[in-house]
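job 3f2a | input accepted
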Amino acid sequence: MKVLVIGAGFAGCCAALLLRESLSADVSVLERAKVPGGMLRTLHTAEGVPYEYGPRVVSVFRGTPDLLPFLRRYLDLQERDIYQGTRLRPDYPVVPFPVDLESLKRLPCGATVERELAAIRERGEPPGERDLRDYLESSVGPTLTELAFEGFNRKFWGRRLEEMPAAWGKLRRLERIAATGAYRLPSEASHYYPAGGFNPLFDRMLDGIDVRYGVTVERIDADVRGASVLTDAGTFRADLVVTTAPIDALLGHRHGPLEWRGYRVEIDLVAPRPSRRSGRARRHSVRVASTRRGRRRPSAARPTSA
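job 3f2a | predicted structure (306 res):
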């Protein structure tokens, strides 16, 4: 059986490997980038510090205990403590994430947040249920809603708070803010990071598999004999196609658009450097484009410290 896998991120690599191992399939992988890994690929700062834009650690919370022995076939997993912080605004100090009341006091808006929370406690009313904004503003106040939830929500879900139900806040208990916090991420499960980063994983999983890099898939057509994958490098035939790319776009939206989310990360500056005119350090930033129903909405993403 001839199988085409579209995408060489972690999902695509797993699909290619397992199809070959389980079915002895003849597998080829089509990848738009020049290297495998997708959002899990390990990059490095100028100082050699590794980082990822997608998942940063391996943790098994529930339901997938066989993941660790699977990954250990390819990686040396080392147990780590995870420290996580954020800047709620570029000029604010780094505070633990999730945020806590004690850390919020150190921010320039700390007094405002305290006054709003005190007023909410004094009213003693349940959170509003008109929409997610109403729920948050009536449970943590307008200032904290804007700082901690509004941009985050737009980045991850591509929606304004008014476009999401209050039930989402109830489900996630978003109104809960700890009195004190720590940069160490609390967890009942152990966290692991591979020695040397994640990149060896993809090369080892794809060893012996035909991978075509720099290929952009444009459309998938199916008939009684199988499927045709149209790309900028020609047409590929297969009995089965597994895609980790936006399936609705590849099918020409023939079944309508799916509410798919993805990210395009663009680095403006990798480090602050002086401006020629003022001599002051220019602020570096990361921009993320959130894809919703095939359209991209840019939103600012502030770097986090971990």
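job 3f2a | The CA atoms of residues 220 and 229 lie 5 Å apart.
job 3f2a | closed
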